[in-house]
Amino acid sequence: MRAYTAYRRWLGGNGRAETQVIRDGFVWGTFLFGPLWALARARWMAAAALAAGWLVAGILAGLAGEPSAAAGFWLIAALWSGFSARDLEAWSLENQGWSTADVVLAPSLVEAEARMIASDAARTADVERRW
Fold first, then answer.
1. Are 19 and 8 in contact (CB under 8 A)?
2. d(Cα 113, Cα 4) in Å, to the nearest integer?
């Protein structure tokens, strides 16, 4: 089972909202592509933080001189990116006006969304406005 977090941004006083569900855990896209992954998802602050990390790794790799040490710095930066991507993404979303709406454990994204919608339906009659 994986943890999924729903983020919600309200679009006005009429109860309409946007919802995004994001899986927690390691992100291979960030491991491979670094800040480009965050840019593709419009997570500007996450992209800036990842770019700073990759820049530091590039500077250290350039100063290392030894190819194996340079590869080690790049591997460390890639691993850091993969493990911290979801936290940086949450930070970026919160600064864009999104807030945490729900957290659920589920075997898949579809099941997580179904559980979240059912939970939302228990609280309010207008669930379709939020999903």
1. yes
2. 9
| CA-based R_g, the chain, Å | 18
Residue 34 near residue 129 (C-beta atoms within 8 A): no
Report if pTM > 0.90.
no
**pLDDT of 79 strictly over 90:** yes
| Token pair recorded at residue 72 | 């080690």
CB distance 93 to 5 below 8 Å = no
Residue count of the chain = 131
Alpha-carbon distance of 87 to 59, in angstroms, equals 24
Q: Is 41 strand, coil or helix?
A: coil
Helix (H) or strand (E) holding 26, with range, is none
pLDDT tens digits for range 5-41: 999 988 776 767 888 999 999 999 999 999 999 999 9
Q: What's the mean per-residue pLDDT of the chain? A: 89
Task: Cite the DSSP H helix spans in the chain.
Answer: 28-33, 35-40, 44-64, 67-95, 109-123
Helix axes 44-64, 67-95, angle to 10 degrees: 170
